[in-house]
Write a structure and sequence with these properties.
The complex is a heterodimer of chains A (104) and B (451).
Chain A lengths: L2 H21 L6 H12 L3 H8 L6 H30 L6 H9 L1
Chain B lengths: L2 H20 L4 H23 L7 H21 L5 H25 L5 H25 L13 H22 L2 H19 L7 H23 L2 H24 L4 H6 L22 H9 L3 E6 L1 H5 L3 H15 L2 E6 L9 H8 L7 E3 H4 L8 E5 L8 H4 L18 E6 L19 E5 L2 H13 L1
Parallel strand pairs in B: 1-2, 1-4, 2-3, 4-5, 5-6
Helix pairs in contact in B: 1-2, 1-9, 4-5, 4-8, 5-6, 5-7, 5-8, 6-7, 8-9, 11-17, 13-17
The chains are: A mainly alpha (104), B alpha/beta (451).
Chain lengths: 104, 451
């Protein structure tokens, strides 16, 4: 089995995983889904880290460094905004007052 | 860190990312899920930094911190109504970083021409398209569909240029066609998004989201990196599914979003001039609602523009606690400017998510509701979508608010919605128009209810 065939196999299987996992997401959380997927697509930073991590300075290294900054914005921004959104989704607070009455 | 340890870390992060998206199936598991995603990212970055692949950690670390500060600043500052444009901007940055990585790879002598060309092409379209979408959503340029003469022909020529320069580069490996490919793809991103109007934005953002995933796949192939391929495929699938859901919700095909827009050349369904809409006032509305047993609130994007979500939540609370009315919120999939946007806006106003229902879940309940309170929404309630096959919105699933005993429309005027189609519900015998600003009208009703 060649290397590139292995990568294609992984790609196809990952598409299936993505398909089933994403259909399971509740429509109410589609915005957080977008920002989480945005954040994790910042994983291209791994490529940027490697090009930027070269010892000698070259134009490729500088491009890599800029790419690290951009992907890092994507990652931090995406995760923080998702967390902000998810913290807002709250359940009803109704059952609590009834319990307090029972204690009285 | 040895190479096999690095691969194990990548595998583990891939699993964490999948679990983090899986956890978005329900709101109570979602917060933990986001943390799983963060762990996955920390693991992937940490493993790469400590591997032999990165020798200069000082500069790289600095770049990482700069990005972290900028990203955190904007993510903490952004208002929830401005969420769509921020997602668009972040998408664009992801696309741009893919472009830069592909460029750096070629400059440092990578021989994987096809892979880098694909990463560059998709990344560039995602970048320039997202920046334009950002400008439209932010109001920097008009949100109306913009066409220029021979737009389609131009796009077609541009697409051919992209294919040609891509082929030229792949065969020869020269750098000039690679630059040409980059330039043509950047222009293509702009000309593809220009003709798309404001209400189609949920679809565009989803497509661009998908592109940023496929760009990561391209980079993954060029770097032989399994994690990039897995994550890219999942993000790509996610964006594709979201755009499918959005096009379904508007009964539009992707082709018609990209090449056409609402209200062009269609003059269907002009209503009779002798029909009169009845105006109601906030006192009447308050009286009818406090005597109702079930009220369904239908918020649209106009509600968000008027910043009426907090007062709306207050009205719902007074109705429920003081008058014992059952209050529910009904959300159309395209109620906001991105998928799920309206849910976030209501959550921000502290509306419990159990009270918020999607179209399919609530449509039957309008028949048993005493009041439908439609605020800032129009097209998504239009019954012509069911009955008039010549209408541009024909076939779009709508909220059947007309089945409620009384319908209130909070609107500035009788003007048509984005589609340009008149709404016969305005003239129905059980409909009352509450003219005015969404926030002001709701405030007046709430203050009457509180007396």
């Amino acid at each position: 089995m060649t290397d590139s065939f292995l990568l294609w196999t992984i790609l196809v299987l990952a598409c299936f995983v993505g398909y089933f996992v994403v259909w399971g997401v509740t429509p109410a959380l589609h915005s957080p889904l977008m920002s989480v997927s945005n954040a994790i697509s910042g994983v291209v930073i791994l490529g940027a880290l490697i090009t930027a991590g070269a010892i000698e300075f070259s134009s490729a290294k500088i491009l890599g460094l800029i790419a690290v900054v951009l992907a890092s914005i994507n990652i931090f921004g995406g995760f923080i905004v998702s967390q902000r959104m998810l913290l807002m989704f709250k359940k009803k607070e109704k059952p609590l007052p009834q319990e307090e009455k029972r204690h009285d | 860190m040895t190479n096999s340890l690095l691969l194990v870390s990548y595998l583990l992060s891939a699993v964490l990312f999948i679990l983090s998206i899986r956890s978005l199936a329900a709101p109570d598991t979602a917060r933990k899920g986001n943390l799983l995603g963060i762990f996955g990212m920390v693991l992937a970055i940490g493993a790469t930094l400590s591997s032999s692949l990165v020798s200069d950690t000082l500069w790289v670390g600095l770049a990482l911190i700069v990005g972290a500060l900028i990203g955190s600043y904007f993510a903490l500052k952004v208002k929830m109504t401005a969420l769509p444009q921020m997602i668009a901007a972040f998408n664009g940055l992801g696309g741009l970083s893919a472009v830069l990585i592909a460029l750096a790879e070629i400059l440092s002598g990578s021989a994987l021409y096809v892979e880098n060309a694909i990463g560059l092409l998709i990344g560039a379209v995602a970048f320039s398209g997202s920046i334009l979408a950002f400008a439209k959503l932010q109001g920097l340029i008009s949100a109306k569909p913009l066409h220029f003469p021979l737009h389609r022909t131009f796009n077609l020529m541009l697409a051919l240029l992209v294919v040609a320069s891509c082929a030229h580069f792949v065969i020869t490996g020269q750098i000039e066609p690679f630059y040409l490919l980059a330039a043509a793809s950047l222009v293509l991103g702009v000309t593809l998004v220009l003709p798309i109007g404001g209400a189609d934005m949920p679809i565009v953002i989803s497509i661009l989201n998908s592109y940023s995933g496929w760009a990561a796949v391209g980079i993954g192939f060029s770097l032989n990196n399994i994690l990039l391929i897995i994550v890219g495929a999942i993000v790509g699938a996610s964006g594709a599914i979201l755009s499918y859901i959005m096009t379904k919700a508007m009964n539009r095909s992707l082709m018609s979003v990209i090449f056409g827009s609402f209200g062009e050349g269609s003059t269907a369904s002009v209503l009779e001039a002798n029909q009169q809409a009845k105006a109601g006032d906030p006192q009447d509305a308050a009286f009818i609602m406090e005597n109702a047993s079930k009220v369904i609130i239908v918020p649209g994007y106009g509600m968000a523009v008027a910043q009426a979500q907090h007062i709306l939540k207050e009205m719902a609370e007074v109705l429920a606690s003081k008058y014992n009315v059952e209050v529910k919120f009904a959300i159309h999939p395209v109620a906001g400017r991105m998928p799920g946007h309206m849910n976030v806006l209501l959550a921000e106003a502290n509306v419990p998510y159990e009270d918020v229902f999607e179209l399919e879940a609530i449509n039957r309940e309008f028949a048993t509701a005493d009041v439908a309170y439609v605020i800032g929404a129009n097209d998504v309630t239009n019954p012509l979508a069911k009955t008039d096959s010549s209408s541009p919105i024909y076939g779009m699933p709508v909220l059947e608010v007309g089945k409620a005993k009384t319908v209130f429309f909070v609107k500035r005027s009788l003007a048509t919605g984005y589609s340009g189609v008149d709404n016969p519900l305005f003239y129905a015998p059980n409909t009352f128009m509450l003219y005015g600003d969404a926030k002001k009208v709701t405030e007046e009703i709430t203050s009457v209810l509180e007396q």
